[in-house]
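A.,

Following up on our hallway conversation. Structure tokens first:
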């Protein structure tokens, strides 16, 4: 997740326009559900990582990948549902790796299949999945689960240039990444696809940055979280040659952020006139509209048309998307009492 990445890598993320941040989500799940806002809960199902990306301190801080037992995860979901949460977000350091360490081993897809059967559950959402953990089984599940798992994935890209990915020690190349996001775009209707990208990795040339920009531009991605690289002591990348000048990094970050905004705008525009299921949060926006989050991660304001907002909060309702301007999206409730 971006916050975790910032903590672990020492990056400097700009807040993305459509990120819910801490609002609307209660961190942790057991046994204190946190503040009174019981709309979305973050449920940690996994910790640690077996990969060794050259810039990352997480494996040395958090250790190898470990999964929560499925019975515990399912019981916690049940308690969150009972406590009134409508959306539960699975989190982890490398969530897609879930279950490999268990005895007998399990997969994230198998856990999800059991989780979506829990009575009263509104919907589940996944946070960030490494490209190699997006399996055919998971794509099939997302495509056929009738929205019980939100059609939304954030898949770290980090660079759209194979030479940089090799220096980062990332376990995939751009062709692998493209296959994953193209398959998701083709098979999961309306899915939102986001990516983390690092700019200014040691030795990143103008051409390598351009390759990243072009790769993203021609991809089906819908939003970006852009991070400026800064070295973390104890990582191999910290001693790599080719430090990139801060002014250049700033310029590259700004260009990618603009590209991310364009991708988001294009994505949200494509849903004007369409209806999505949205979770109404407990917040009235400054424009007087009720804030809501669609299944495919569009953060919007719902026109109330004279209705009492308190009766509409924390519900999964159909919302017709009516207008998009800049980072703002507006919709109307369809058929809500
Ligand atoms: S996948 Fe790489 S960047 Fe992510 S936590 Fe593991 S080692 Fe760190």
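Then the amino acids I'd put at each of the 337 positions:
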């Amino acid at each position: 997740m971006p916050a975790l990445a910032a903590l672990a890598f020492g990056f400097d993320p700009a807040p993305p326009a459509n990120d819910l941040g801490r609002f609307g989500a209660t961190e942790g799940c057991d046994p204190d559900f946190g503040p009174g806002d019981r709309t979305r809960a973050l449920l940690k199902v996994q910790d640690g990582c077996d990969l060794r990306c050259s810039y990352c301190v997480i494996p040395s801080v958090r250790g190898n990948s470990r999964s929560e037992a499925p019975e515990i995860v399912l019981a916690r979901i049940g308690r969150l549902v009972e406590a009134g949460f409508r959306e539960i977000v699975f989190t982890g350091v490398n969530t897609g790796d879930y279950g490999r360490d268990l005895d007998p081993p399990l997969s994230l897809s198998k856990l999800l299949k059991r989780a979506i059967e829990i009575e009263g559950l509104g919907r589940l959402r996944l946070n960030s999945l490494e490209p190699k953990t997006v399996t055919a089984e998971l794509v099939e599940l997302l495509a056929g689960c009738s929205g019980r798992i939100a059609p939304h994935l954030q898949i770290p890209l980090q660079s759209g240039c194979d030479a940089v990915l090799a220096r980062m020690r990332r376990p995939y190349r751009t062709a692998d990444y493209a296959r994953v996001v193209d398959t998701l775009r083709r098979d999961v209707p309306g899915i939102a696809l986001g990516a983390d990208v690092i700019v200014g990795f040691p030795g990143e040339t103008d051409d390598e940055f351009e390759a990243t920009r072009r790769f993203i531009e021609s991809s089906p991605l819908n939003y970006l979280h852009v991070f400026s690289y800064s070295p973390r002591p104890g990582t191999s990348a910290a001693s790599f040659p080719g430090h990139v000048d801060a002014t250049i990094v700033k310029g590259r970050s700004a260009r990618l952020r603009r590209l991310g905004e364009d991708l988001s705008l294009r994505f949200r525009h494509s849903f004007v006139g369409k209806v999505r299921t949205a979770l109404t949060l407990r917040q009235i926006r400054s424009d007087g509209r009720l804030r809501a989050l669609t299944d495919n991660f569009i953060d919007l304001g719902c026109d109330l048309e004279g209705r009492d907002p308190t009766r509409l909060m924390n519900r999964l309702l159909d919302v017709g998307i009516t207008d998009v301007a800049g980072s703002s999206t507006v919709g109307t409730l369809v058929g809500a009492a």
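Residues 1-34 have pLDDT under 50 and may be disordered. Curious whether your intuition agrees with the design.

B.
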